[in-house]
């Protein structure tokens, strides 16, 4: 999945794979990844549409496993 500026493609692909495996929205997985970082209390998000807002709100139900966190860390952080 190419990104607009070509940066982060591997991280996006890995996140999308986790989202597909879980049947979750990519945005929910991305926010779960941010919340998994030490010291992050609450990520700041914004949604332009009601549909996107719903996807962001579902992220509170997503907690990544240590395997998923390790997979994402290997490519994005």
Q: Any overview of this molecule?
A:
By secondary structure, this protein is mostly helical. The protein has one domain (9-76). It has four helices and no strands. It has helices spanning 9-22, 26-35, 50-58, 66-76. Helix 1 (9-22) packs across helix 2 and helix 1 (9-22) packs antiparallel against helix 4. The longest helix is centred in the first third of the chain and has 14 residues, at 9-22. The relative contact order is 0.21.
Task: Indicate the topology.
Elements: H1 9-22, H2 26-35, H3 50-58, H4 66-76
Helix pairs in contact: 1-2, 1-4
- Whole-number mean pLDDT: 84
How does the overall form come out from the CA principal axes? globular
Q: How many structural domains in the coordinates?
A: 1
Label the structural class.
Answer: mainly alpha
Task: Supply the key terms.
4 helices
Brief digest:
By secondary structure, this protein is mainly α.
């Amino acid at each position: 999945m190419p990104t607009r500026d070509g940066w982060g493609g591997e991280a996006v692909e890995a996140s999308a794979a986790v989202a597909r495996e879980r049947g979750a929205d990519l945005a929910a997985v991305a926010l779960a990844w941010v919340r998994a970082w030490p010291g992050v209390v609450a990520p700041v998000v914004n949604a332009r549409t009601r549909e996107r807002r719903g996807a962001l709100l579902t992220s509170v139900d997503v907690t990544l496993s240590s395997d998923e966190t390790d997979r994402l860390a290997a490519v994005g952080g």
